[in-house]
Structure formats: structure tokens, C-alpha cells
């Protein structure tokens, strides 16, 4: 069975003290979770959260990083800085980075390879806009983002990559793809991985669902064959709901 990942993306929410308090509240709630649990606070909150979860089973991730290790890039954060803090994973290519900040597949690919080279697991986000889905292009969009985002990544390195499918129209809107619709895209992405790499690689890779997963729909979504966890936004900002998500199978 694939190693499921239940992840909270806190986005631009919580001050460092608030983030530390939330992390401390979550620790006892998820200590007996059967699957991996991750939280991604904003950059300035990472040190406080790492300190708050020390000794627990919670993985701390960053929400983004620069596509180069160092230099005159005002406002950017280097993979070396994240690694030094103890960050283990990084979310890359989130729809907000793609569609608000204009990150291209090529930039995201540079970040993916840089994270892997420094021993940090990238969570590569893919997903279509509403107009792309309505035009019947959902699979094609995801295929392109997968192929270009993973360009130059070896099959050995793919073992350390997580994919997060996030239909853009379902992020923060309260709308959710039906479990069958979500699983269909996950299955299609798995098929694409098989074409790019191998059947074995496709079977192993973890593909999360990232479109408004919450305690009310988590069991139905996680019951699907190809859904291996969640990249959760709003429902991860409260300890009770995130704890429930992390323990969805109990």
C-alpha cells in the first residue's frame, strides 16, 4: 500500500506564536495516526513550528522556495535555508503560485530538481482551471504539468516526489470534485507516470487530492483506489478538524 500523506497547507495564515500554538495542539491529536502527517506554515513561522513539533511524528514543510540556491534575489528563500532549519518537504507549483504569481512549468521544474538535489521531498501540485475542465482539457493540462514538472527527474528520484492533484476550481471554494471524478484524474495521472517512467513507478507514487478536503468528505475520497492523501487548506487551520482528517480511518 502507498504511504498516504495527510498535509496541511496553512498558506498566509497564523503569526509565529499562533502557528506554534496550533502545532502544539495538533501533536497529541495525530500521534497515533497510521499515515504520514505534514504541516506547511509560512516561512516566518517555520522555526517556531519545528520547535513545537520536535520529537513528534509531524513533518514540517515549506510552501515554496526559490529556483536557485543563493544570490541577489530579494525576497526569495533558498532551499539551503530550509534544509538548515530542518524542513523535510516543500510544496511546489501550487495553483496560487502558478496563477497569481505566474510561475511556469519550467520554473517549477527547476525547483523540483533543486529540492531533490538537497534531500527535500517536493510536493508537485498540478490541476486544471474551471474553464479547462469545462472544455474537456483537464487530463491534458495535468499531463503537461506532470511531464514538464518532472522533466529530468530520474525514476530513482521519483521515489522522493509526491504529486498533489488540485482542481483549481475546488480550492477554497467549498466545491469538491466527486470522489469518482477526483479518482479518475488521479488514475489518469498514474497512467501518465507509467508512460513517463514505468508501471512500478506509477503504482508506488503518492498522489494527494487537494480540493477542499474536509472531515465531511475525507472518508469517501480516501476510499478511492488512486487517492493517497490530502493537501488540505482551510480545514488544516483548526486542530480538531485536522486531527480528524489525519485519523480518517479510525
Describe this entry's structure for a reader:
The chain has 250 residues and is an alpha/beta fold. It has a single domain (5-13, 62-246), classed as Aldolase class I (TIM Barrel, Alpha-Beta Barrel), CATH 3.20.20. The protein has 12 helices and 8 strands. An 8-stranded parallel sheet has the order 7-6-5-4-3-2-1-8. Helix 1 packs parallel to helix 2 (46-52) and helix 1 packs parallel to helix 12. The protein starts with a strand and ends with a helix. The mean pLDDT is 96.
Measured on Cα atoms, how large is the radius of gyration?
A: 17 Å
Most strands sheet: 8 strands, parallel
SSE pattern, N- to C-terminal: EHEHEHEHHEHHHEHHEHEH
Number of helical stretches of at least 4 residues: 12
Counting helices, strands and paired strands, the structural category is: alpha/beta
Q: What order do the strands of the largest sheet run in, or round the barrel if closed? A: 7-6-5-4-3-2-1-8
CATH fold call = TIM Barrel
Count the beta strands.
Answer: 8
CATH architecture: Alpha-Beta Barrel
Topology (SSEs and partners):
Layout: E1 5-9, H1 16-30, E2 36-40, H2 46-52, E3 58-62, H3 79-85, E4 89-92, H4 95-99, H5 105-117, E5 121-126, H6 130-134, H7 138-149, H8 155-158, E6 162-165, H9 179-196, H10 199-204, E7 206-209, H11 218-222, E8 229-232, H12 239-246
Overview features:
250 residues; TIM Barrel; 8 strands
Q: How would you summarize what this structure contains?
A:
The chain has helices spanning about 15-30, 45-50, 80-85, 95-100, 105-115, 130-135, 140-150, 155-160, 180-195, 200-205, 220, 240-245; strands spanning about 5-10, 35-40, 60, 90, 120-125, 160-165, 205-210, 230.
Amino acid at each position: 500500500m502507498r504511504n498516504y500523506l495527510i498535509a496541511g497547507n496553512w498558506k498566509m495564515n497564523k503569526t509565529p506564536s499562533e502557528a506554534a500554538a496550533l502545532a502544539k495542539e495538533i501533536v497529541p491529536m495525530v500521534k497515533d495516526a497510521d499515515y504520514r502527517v505534514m504541516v506547511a506554515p509560512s516561512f516566518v513561522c517555520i522555526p517556531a513550528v519545528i520547535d513545537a513539533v520536535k520529537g513528534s511524528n509531524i513533518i514540517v514543510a515549506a510552501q515554496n522556495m526559490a529556483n536557485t540556491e543563493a544570490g541577489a534575489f530579494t525576497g526569495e528563500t533558498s532551499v539551503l535555508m530550509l534544509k538548515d532549519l530542518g524542513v523535510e518537504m516543500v510544496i511546489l507549483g501550487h495553483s496560487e503560485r502558478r496563477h497569481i504569481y505566474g510561475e511556469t512549468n519550467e520554473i517549477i521544474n527547476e525547483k523540483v530538481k533543486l529540492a531533490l538535489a538537497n534531500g527535500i521531498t517536493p510536493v508537485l501540485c498540478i490541476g486544471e482551471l474551471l474553464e479547462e475542465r469545462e472544455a474537456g482539457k483537464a487530463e491534458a493540462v495535468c499531463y503537461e504539468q506532470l511531464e514538464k514538472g518532472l522533466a529530468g527527474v530520474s525514476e530513482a528520484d521519483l521515489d522522493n516526489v509526491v504529486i498533489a492533484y488540485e482542481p483549481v476550481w475546488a480550492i477554497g471554494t467549498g466545491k469538491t470534485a466527486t470522489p469518482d471524478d477526483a479518482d479518475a484524474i488521479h488514475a489518469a495521472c498514474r497512467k501518465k507516470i507509467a508512460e513517463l517512467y514505468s508501471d512500478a513507478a506509477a503504482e508506488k507514487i503518492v498522489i494527494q487530492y487537494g480540493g477542499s478536503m474536509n472531515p465531511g468528505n475525507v472518508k469517501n475520497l480516501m476510499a478511492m483506489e488512486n487517492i493517497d492523501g490530502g493537501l488540505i487548506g482551510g480545514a488544516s487551520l483548526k486542530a480538531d478538524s485536522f486531527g480528524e482528517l489525519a485519523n480518517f480511518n479510525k
